[in-house]
């Protein structure tokens, strides 16, 4: 068991290492991006990567406080589902109006893996192998699809 400080330090070390590993990787548009804190350019729409002592998750997260707008954004992603699946090469889990860990209602499209631990450095290659191709595939998808979401910005 780790103290909060130790856990925070290890978590920060992983995300720093991942960010440095990805730093030279250009986006689909050929620009530089902060892969760990990917900016979609649309308010309340995020590409999130999380890991803890049991799982890792990458997600498209819609967190607009107006649930009607949140649902419209989710439906827009459904309209782009074939393009999204074509970019990422796999099916993800679709969840409209679920609760996040803070009790906030969000909608998400996500992929998880189990049996990984961000606090074990020997799991870091597995985590990087999980996150890297998926965040790059999301970027490739977003390069084409972002214009269909301009009405939400």
Whole-Å distance between the termini?
Answer: 43 Å
| Alpha-beta content class | alpha+beta
Arrangement of strands in the largest sheet: 1-2-4-3
Mean pLDDT: 95
- Report the helical percentage: 40-55%
Identify low-pLDDT runs: none
Shape: globular
- Biggest pleated-sheet summary: 4 strands, antiparallel
What's the number of extended β-strand segments?
4
Secondary structure tally, helices: 4
Supply Rg. Answer: 16 Å
Q: Strand share of the residues?
A: 15-25%
Report the order of strands and helices: HEEHHEEH
Tags for this entry?
153 residues, alpha+beta, 4 strands, globular
Task: Describe the fold and architecture.
- Helices cover 41% and strands 21% of the residues.
- The chain is built from four helices and four strands.
- Strands 1-2-4-3 form a four-stranded antiparallel sheet.
- Helix 3 runs antiparallel to helix 4.
- The protein is globular and about 45 Å long.
């Amino acid at each position: 068991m780790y103290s909060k400080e130790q856990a925070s330090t290890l978590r920060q070390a992983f995300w720093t290492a991942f960010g440095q590993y990805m730093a030279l990787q250009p986006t689909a548009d050929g620009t530089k991006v902060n892969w760990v804190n990917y900016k979609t350019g649309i308010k309340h729409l995020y590409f999130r990567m999380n890991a803890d002592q049991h799982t890792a998750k990458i997600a498209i997260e819609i967190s607009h406080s107006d649930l009607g707008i949140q649902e419209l954004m989710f439906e827009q992603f459904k309209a782009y589902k074939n393009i999204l699946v074509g970019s990422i090469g796999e099916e993800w889990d679709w969840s409209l109006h679920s609760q996040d860990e803070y009790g906030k209602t969000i909608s998400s499209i996500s992929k998880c893996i189990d049996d990984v631990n961000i606090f074990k450095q020997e799991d870091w290659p597995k985590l990087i192998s999980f996150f890297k191709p998926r965040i790059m595939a999301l970027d490739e998808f977003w390069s084409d699809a972002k214009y269909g979401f301009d009405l939400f910005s």
